[in-house]
Amino acid sequence: MAIMEYLEKVLTALALPPGGLILLALLGVALARNHWRSGSVLVTTSLLALWLLATPAVADWLRFSLERKYPPVPVDQLSPADAIVVLGGGITPAHARNPYPDLGAAGDRYWHAARIWNAGKAPEILISGGVLPWTGAIRSEAEAAVGLLGDLGVPADRILIEAGSVNTRQNAQMSVMILRGRGARRVLLVTSALHMRRALELFERTGLEVIPAATDHEVAREPPGLLRWLADTDSLDGSRRALKEYLGYWLGK
After folding, report:
1. Which class for 188: exposed (0-12), middle (13-18), buried (19 or more C-beta within 10 A)?
2. Phi and psi dihedrals of 192, rounded to 5?
3. 134 falls in which pLDDT band (50, 70, 90)?
4. Which of 18, 67, 131, 223 is least enclosed, having the fewest CB within 10 Å?
């Protein structure tokens, strides 16, 4: 199983920018030796696409196309549920070079889950997130997040752990077994707004009634200007993550 998961990660990296576009550009260079026109068109197209995906204008458009369906909802307006499910991706567990968990950009997921629990919207929080075997992590993300939720006021006996999943599809499949065992049928799903479309689809397939509680919204409206069309690495990463969400949604991952 670990080999298949590793291969899936490699293929995804090769398909998405910048890897996929760099490979296309290299293919164009090779093709240009015998077919100059075709090769030069492929190189130019690849580099132009790489530039556009690295601009704030395109990156924000791609991300907002996913986030706009799940705007921020005040906690007091959320419907009650049997449990809160928060998906991993916001914490890097401790490993040999760092003895402490590292809170990442998507750590808002845990803050929002605690916020919802403290508002009395559900009696329990289920953390869903395992560990990729090749990362060298000492324990799963779900286990690493227990301490953070505790610091945010959630008692340990109100926290459930699903520590076996390594992708969103497994998040859904493994979480539902725990939730049904506790009689939960209606859940508040907490994940980043960028990730919500894919996560919601997979969780709804399990037969649960799922209420989206999106957080970690990234895109704010900004006035147009020249800087919006100048490439930067943060925007390229934003485009890559948005395209990864579309790819995962289409593949049912």
Report:
1. buried
2. -65, 145
3. low
4. 223
Q: Which residue shows structure tokens 């579309």?
A: 246
pLDDT average, residue stretch 110-120: 98
What pTM did the predictor assign?
0.92
Residue for token pair 């910048």: 18
Contacts of 185 (CB under 8 A, 6+ apart): 82, 179, 208, 209
Q: Are 107 and 160 in contact (CB under 8 A)?
A: no
Peptide bond into 224 cis (omega under 30): no
What is the chain written as a DSSP string? -HHHHHHHHHHHHHHSTTHHHHHHHHHHHHHHTT-HHHHHHHHHHHHHHHHHHTSHHHHHHHHHHHHTTS----GGGSPP-SEEEEES-SEE--BTTBSS-EE-GGGHHHHHHHHHHHTTS-S-EEEE----TTS-BSS-HHHHHHHHHHHTT--GGGEEEE----SHHHHHHHHHHHHHHTT--EEEEE-BHHHHHHHHHHHHTTT-EEEE--B----------GGGGS--HHHHHHHHHHHHHHHHHHHT-
Look at residues 65, 98, 91 and name the one whose alpha carbon lies nearest to residue 197.
Answer: 65
Query: Using one digit for the tens of pLDDT, what is the confidence trace for 13-72?
Result: 999 999 999 999 999 999 999 999 999 999 999 999 999 999 999 999 999 999 999 999
